[in-house]
Amino acid sequence: MSLLEVENLRVTFATEAGPVEAVRGVSFRLDRERLGIVGESGSGKTMTGRSVLRLIRPPGRIEADRMAFGGVDLMRISEREMRALRGRRIAMVMQDPKFSLNPVMRVGAQLTEGLRLRDGMSAREARAKALEALEAVQIRDPERVLDAYPHELSGGMGQRVMIAMMLIPEPDLLIADEPTSALDVTVQAEVLRILDALVRERGMGLMFISHDLNLVARFCDRVLVMYRGRIVEEIEAQRLSQATHPYTQGLLGCLPKIGGARGPLPTLARDAAWSE
User: Fold this and answer.
1) Strand pairing of 66-69 and 4-15?
2) 133 in a domain, yes or no?
C-alpha cells in the first residue's frame, strides 16, 4: 500500500463567471520517496498539495474518488480527525517564510507552541525539542535563533526554521511548496541536502513542488508534469530530459542554457488537446 493515493482529484472555485477548475482529475501515488510536481504558475501544483491537507476553503471545493493517506480516506474523515493529521503526520512547508512565520512572535515561541498545547510538553521539554529540530536542519547557533524574531533571520535561515517547525512532530509526509525559490544557489543546495537526508534517514515521503525543471531532475526520484490542472506526463526524474510529451519538451526547450546561443528564448506552442 502506498503512503498516499490520490484518484481523480478535482478542485473547483465558484466565481461570478461560473465554476473554475484549478485541478482536474489528478491521480497519482506517493511512497517514501521524493516526488516532484512541476509546471507553470497556475498549473495546479500548489492546489494539489494543499488539497492533501484539505486546506482549500470556500468558495473552493475538493472532490476525489479517493484520497487515502496510510489507508485513511482523507475525504471521509471529520475536520477534527483531519486536524489530528495535519502537522503531526502530514506537514507542509510554504513557499516564503516571511509570510509563514508570525512577525511579532519569537521563533522559539512559534516552534514550541504546538508541543505545549497539542502534546502537553513542559516549556523546558518543548525548548529542548525545538533546539534538536534546529540542529537537525544545520543551524549552528540554535539558541540565538530561538530567541530571534523572523525579520532578524536571512531568507535561508527562515526557510530552515520553517522546515524544522514542520519536522518537529516527525511527519510521514512532507509537502514542500517551492522551498528553495527565494534562496541563492549555495543555500538552496544546503536545504536540498537537508531534505534528502530526512527522506533517507527518517523514511519520509516528500512531495516537492517546483517550477525549476533542472532542480527537480537532479533532486527527485519521479516527476509529475502538470498543465492547466492535469497531469500530462509522469517520468523518472533522471530521464526528464527524454520526456515525450510536447508540453514537457516545450518547457525544457524554454530553459536558458549557459554558453548557448544568444537571442530570444523559444516560446511554447500550446495545443488545446493537452488540457482535454
Assistant:
1) antiparallel
2) no
Q: Residue 227 domain-assigned?
A: yes
pLDDT at res. 257: 73
Q: How far is CA 64 from CA 8, 45, 51, in A?
A: 5, 16, 10
pLDDT at 60: 93
Show the domain range for 244: 4-95+170-256+266-275
Cis amide bond preceding 59, omega within 30: yes
For the full predicted model, state whether its pTM sits above 0.85: yes
pLDDT score recorded for residue 99: 73
List average pLDDT for each run of 10 residues in the chain, which is 276 residues long.
91 92 95 93 92 93 94 92 88 77 91 84 90 84 92 84 83 88 72 82 89 89 94 94 90 77 75 75
User: Domain tally for the chain?
Assistant: 1
Question: In the structure grid, which three cell numbers stand for residue 10, read together?
Answer: 478535482
CATH number of the domain to which 246 belongs: 3.40.50.300
